[in-house]
Design a protein that fits this description.
alpha+beta; Transcription Elongation Factor S-II, Chain A; 2 domains; 4-stranded antiparallel β-sheet; about 20% helix
Length: about 200
């Protein structure tokens, strides 16, 4: 952008959301995305045109999406962090100075998180916060941490069983809800502790 504090040094490109430059070098690397697809742009110097050196198409067979791209200051190396639908992360290294590597489909895999099926355990973790008896006066709302307010309409209330009991001056119910919420949080802590050792 061309503002009072920043001068436009390269023309904008459609769907390119980040450009990177070394302190003393021209802008050489860009990353763009659109509808789950992402791509890396590179130019060796300030006179050259940007060209796409890697493109990732989003589809069912390959659901990964880049989370971030980090250039190595003073070099033509960059690191892309990619994730997939199950929450696994991979780290790829790109060496733009090597002509051969510009033709490969991906960067060099330098790290892969072997955690499997992270989405299901996270969903199960959320279930630890549910109370089968529901909230006071609303047995259909099971969540002990947040729910629509009973007295205030549908704005979200945190710790609704506790808060609403206190707001109504029902100290007996408030004590009961504190015990229930404490038990749910302890269940969550136990679940997360057990999951982290698997």
């Amino acid at each position: 952008l061309d503002t009072g504090k920043a001068k436009r040094v390269i023309p904008s490109s459609e769907n390119v959301w980040e450009y990177f430059a070394d302190r003393t070098a021209p802008v050489r690397i860009g990353i763009g995305s659109n509808n789950g697809d992402w791509w890396l742009l590179y130019r060796p110097d300030g006179e050259a045109r940007f060209r796409t050196v890697h493109r990732h198409k989003a589809n069912q067979a390959n659901p990964g999406a880049i989370g971030s791209f980090v250039p190595v200051v003073g070099s033509d190396l960059g690191y892309a962090i990619a994730g997939n639908a199950e929450g696994r992360l991979s780290l790829y290294r790109y060496d733009f100075s090597n002509g051969a590597s510009l033709r490969v489909e991906k960067g060099v895999l330098t790290y892969f998180n072997p955690a499997k099926g992270i989405v299901k355990p996270l969903f199960q973790a959320e279930k630890q916060l549910l109370n089968n008896d529901g909230l006071p006066q609303r047995p259909w709302y099971k969540h002990t941490i947040y729910a629509p307010g009973f007295y205030t309409g549908y704005g979200v209330k945190t710790l609704p069983g506790i808060r609403e009991s206190i707001e109504q001056g029902d100290w007996e119910e408030a004590n009961k809800q504190i015990k229930i919420a404490t038990q749910r949080l302890n269940n969550l802590a136990d679940y997360l502790g057990a999951s982290s050792t698997k």
